[in-house]
Amino acid sequence: MTSLKVGNAAIRIDGGELVSYSVGDYQFIHQKGSPGWRNSDTEMFPIIGPTALANFQVQTPRDMAIQDQHGLLREMNYELISVTEIQAVFEKRYTANTRIKNSKYPEKSTKEYVFWPYDFVFTKSFFLDEDSLLIVFTIDAPRDTPFMLGYHPAFKLHASNPVVMANEAKISLENIMATGSQAYEVANCEQLSLIDSQEMHIQTEGFGNFMLWTEVPNMLCIEPITFYPYKVAQNELHEGFQYTRETPLEFKVRLSTNSK
Questions:
Q1: Tens digits of per-residue pLDDT, 55-104?
Q2: Burial state string for 28-65 with b = 16 or more CB within 10 A and e = fewer than 16
Q3: Distance CA 5, CA 186 (A)
Q4: 3-state DSSP call for residue 8?
């Protein structure tokens, strides 16, 4: 377990997963074991969305890939690269076409292994200060590698009627739950706020969109995404690809506990 603390703000990271972000006695992150979801955060890469109806196949410019829901990055383990009192850096390295055991097999998937036809290095960096937590994702891959990226944190809900403010609209928990497993789309948005017993402001760079998901009233996933996958059929997910450049790409998420 990796812990960072600045003033009253503290985070705990378990193998790259943000399992706690607290300010004083107030916990912002969904706790494992509580109803709703077995995790507290994860990443969706190199694809976002379900693939079962496409026989778990995703077309890439190089070759067909086998991917389960939300990609294979979550099947890999992070390595801790560095840590200080206010910063921690984790990394995952992948070699093209390496078969990775699929944790959904055989209960929820017919594919025992998943793979991707491209090399990549994926870095997740945490930077903590008294008022905010900055999470930076870096994708280092050969030029023109296709990808989608989503960050999937889950926030603990304290109040009975929390709302999300996005694009000057108020989104109720009831509206989010009504969308079911498909997730509620918030398009063309780089910042929003969760209005709960305390406020959480989420600012992003590089993603461009959000989706919101929960099936329980005690938790809400607020997910920055580069592409909303339910715009297309599962066999057309390649339409949502972005492509890497000559230098690594950075995507940022800042969680702020004040209005700055």
A1: 999 999 999 999 999 999 999 999 999 999 999 999 999 999 999 999 99
A2: bbbeeeeebbebbbbbbbbbbbbbeebebebbbeeeeb
A3: 32
A4: coil
Burial of 192 by CB count in 10 Å (0-12 exposed, 13-18 middle, 19+ buried)?
Answer: buried
Instruction: Please write the tens of the pLDDT for every residue from 156-210.
Output: 999 989 999 999 899 999 999 999 888 999 999 999 999 999 999 999 999 999 9
**Distance between CA atoms of residues 234 and 86, nearest Å:** 41
Q: Does domain 2-256 have CATH number 2.70.98.10?
A: yes
Nearest CA to 76 out of 98, 52, 105 is that of 98
Report the 10 Å Cβ neighbour count for 121: 13
pTM of the shown model: 0.96
Domain ranges of the chain: 2-256
